[in-house]
Structure formats: structure tokens, C-alpha cells
Amino acid sequence: MAISSFVDGVKKALGQGPETVAPAAATPPPSASDFVDTAPSWAELQKMLEDKQQQLGWRPENPETGPANSGSLKRTFGSDAPPRVKLYRDSAAWCPYCQKVWLQLEEKQIPYTIEKINMRCYGDKPQEYTAKVPSGLLPAMELDGELIIESADVMAALEYAFPDKPLMPAKGTPAHARATALMKLERRLFGAWLQWLCYPRNNENNKKGFLSTMGAVEKELGADPSGPFFMGAKVTLVDCVFAPFLERIVASIAYYKGMYVRGEGRFPNLEAWFEGMEKRSSYLGSRSDFYTHCHDLPPQLGGCCQIPEGEPVSAAVDGEDGRSWHLPLPPLHATSLPEPYSPGEQPERDRLQAAAKLIGNHEAVTRFAARGCGEMGTRAFTAELSDPYAKPGMQHLGSVDAGLRLVAHALLAGAGGLPSVDGQVHLQTAADSSGHHSSADGPATLLAAAYMRDRVGVPRDLPLPAARQFRAHLNWLIDSLS
Ligand SMILES: N[C@@H](CCC(=O)N[C@@H](CS)C(=O)NCC(=O)O)C(=O)O
């Protein structure tokens, strides 16, 4: 197994290698009926989408100038000048070190271009990248054409080259000394988190070590009453450095250890910090969700160790509790469990956002989902959700396309607005066909829908509220076919 330097850092800190388990992807139900393709065409869906967008007054934002987002390859913040910065970050938006730099660029509104490179666990890296960065590590940055690696050096270079909107206090001041000490505390927290997360032995001691370091973080967050950030009322580089790890901590400690770091009021200053961060475009656009993290950490870390207390949480996070990924979705808010999210949800707008993404990219999404009824790739990567060389089941493309049009229609109309019998939504099955519509392959569509559902990544594909809607509507299709 290729072990990234994310883990080499852990091994160095702990003097040992992790032992563990990776979570298994949910398996689809075994059988499904064929169905009649009664869904609107993509052109009709596009028209419905536009009508609905007008009705709700919501349109997708401009990726270059709008709020931070994971899809954009260029961020100008409205500037016409050619960007001086090029950021190389991972294509799945899983890398915490890339997220730190991403946050800094967004907070400082430095125009930049982005090139996405796979992490080793996710796929191959282009030779042009390894020729430039022989270690293959991410992130890397070109500043006026000069290559800089190591996130700490990248961040320092950005502060130096772009002194407007400084995110670090001036050197030699007590505030600078405090910021530097807080950055060290972040590395301590990183070590204590991984010691508990990745190693099955000495559970109680490791838990104690983690909680005591979290206690130190909580205390620091309360040190400046103007809060809610580490250095007071304003976001600084310290917040950018802590954010990727704090969000991974909250997700993984709930999933693998069954402890809610956030949502139950255990660390009130931390809750306030998250609420502060979740008001910022930089953070909202780059933050991930529990499902994505709990599946992206094991391949990066060599595994995570689950204890029995984590099992109910992991069932809910993976949508295996029969509830959390099914309609009607449980509410999402600042203290919702398992996953708190302070900006909350706007279900109609979130469904529209998911529909817009699906309709706008339907050809690529259909081919991707059809991998679920195609062939696995000849080369496997350690991230179980990645299979870059998988082949779509080409003979099933029409059926998968029909299934995804039903999902898009349900997202736009509300699944409850679709044909129903006895209060239950039923797809018209092939046996009911009057011959006007073509018949679609139920089992293949079901496999494709489940494959897609398990691979919706946040923030790569959609923000959390829209991703939940997409997953739940794919399950609506699966349940309707089953
Ligand atoms: N010390 C480095 C660590 C960066 C790091 O560990 N990056 C990981 C991803 S999180 C990586 O690129 N690993 C190689 C890979 O997965 O391809 C930094 O701060 O930039």
C-alpha cells in the first residue's frame, strides 16, 4: 500500500504504523424490476430547471467570481490581471494541506488558477507533475512561475507576496508569538487525533490524550473574548491551518469512536468557531462532509480503527440506518446529529442545485454511473471509492440515462409529485408498458444508481445540503426499482 507523507508524519510522530479497517461501501439490494422510460428528456428537464430557477430566484453562481467552490479552475475575484498564482491541489478535494492553502487564497482574494492532480490513493499522477515535484506531494504552488512545495512554505510565500489583507500578525509582536504557538498546538492535536483514530491498542489512554489536547484547543479558543476565531474576531492563518483538521476530527471521531466532538455542546468555543467559519465563503466552499471524510481518511492514513461505539454513527453516516439517506431527509442544522451544519438547509434550493449539476453534466454523470453496471478497472487504487480505469456498461447507458432523468425529475418536481399508487411512488414497470416508451433494465440501473450514490463527494461534486438531496433521490430510485 502506498503510504502518503500525511501518514509518514504520523509514523514519525508515533514511532509506529497504523493498523486498521476501511469502511465498506454500501451494497445495493439484489433485485429490481425493469421499468418503462417515462421520464422527461434532458431538454425538457433543462426547461423545467430554468422555470424553477426563475420561480425560486436561484441561479448557479459564477465559478470565477462567485463564492468559493470546488469546480472552478480559475478564481479572479473580478480582477482582469493574469493570476500570479497557480495552485496544484488534489482532484477529489480530500487533501487537508491543500485545503489550508485554498482557504488562505480565498480569504485574501488572491487571483489564482488551479490544476487538479490525483493523490496516489486515488489514481495516477501526470508525468508533467512528477517531473516538477518528484515526491508527487500536494499541494504545490507556482508563484510568478517559481515552484514552491510544502504547505507551510506556500502559505508563508503568499503572505509575503500579497501583504494586503494580512492573515498573520507582524513578526516580533506578542500576537505573532501567539499565532506561532497555536500552529504548534495544531500539530499536537494532529498527533493526538491520529494516535486515537488509527491504533486499536490503549484505547482509553489514546482517548484521554486526544481529549486533553482538545481541551487545550477549547481553552485557546476562549482566550480572546472578541472571538470566535483563534486570534479573536478576525480569521487568521491559524484558523486556515486548524480548519481542515478540525473538520476531519469531528467527522472521524464520531464515525470511528462514536463521540460527538461537535453537536452536543461538549466544546462550546469550538461550536462557536465552526459557526463563525460556516459563515465564510472560503470555508463553505472547501469544507467536506462526514461521509466523504470517513471514506477518504483510511486510504490516506493506511486505515482507521473503529470501536463498537462508532457503529451506530457509521451506519447513519453511510445511509445504512434506513433513514439518513432516505426521503424525507432528517433536518440538517447547527446541532443535528450525526452531522451538525450551522448554515442549515433550504431543501427546495438544495434540490435545485443538485438537479442543475446533474442536468448540466448528464452525459458525463451517466457514463460515470454506468461503471456500476460495467467492469472494474484493471488497476486498483487504495481509495475504495476510486476506480479510474473502470469501464462503463455501454450496453446499459440508455437505461442508466432513463434512471438519472427520473432522479432529475424527482429533484425538480419533488419525488412526492411523481406518479404514485396508494401513497407510494412506483415507477411504471415494463410489464405495464403500453408500447409507447422504451423499456429500461432495472437491475443495471439500480447498480448504477447505487454506485453513483456512494461516490457523491463533498465539496467536489456538491455542497453538503445538495449532496444529501442527490443521495436520497438516488435511493428513492433504488427503492422504487427494488
Ligand atoms: N508536509 C506536507 C504534507 C503534504 C501531504 O502529506 N500531502 C499528501 C496529501 S494529504 C500527499 O500529497 N500525498 C501524496 C499523495 O497522496 O499523492 C505539506 O505540508 O505540504
UniProtKB/TrEMBL annotation:
Q: Which CDD domains match?
A: GST_N_family (cd00570)
| Matching Gene3D superfamilies | 1.20.1050.10, Glutaredoxin
Instruction: Report domain GST C-terminal positions.
Output: 172-300
Q: What is this protein called?
A: Glutathione S-transferase
Q: Where is this region: Disordered?
A: 20-39, 53-77
Q: Which residues cross the membrane?
A: none
Q: GO cellular-component terms in the record?
A: cytoplasm
Q: By its UniProt entry, which InterPro entries does this protein fall under?
A: Glutathione-S-Trfase_C-like, Glutathione-S-Trfase_C_sf, Glutathione_S-Trfase, Glutathione_S-Trfase_N, GST_Omega/HSP26, Thioredoxin-like_sf
According to the entry, every stretch annotated as the GST N-terminal domain falls at: 85-166
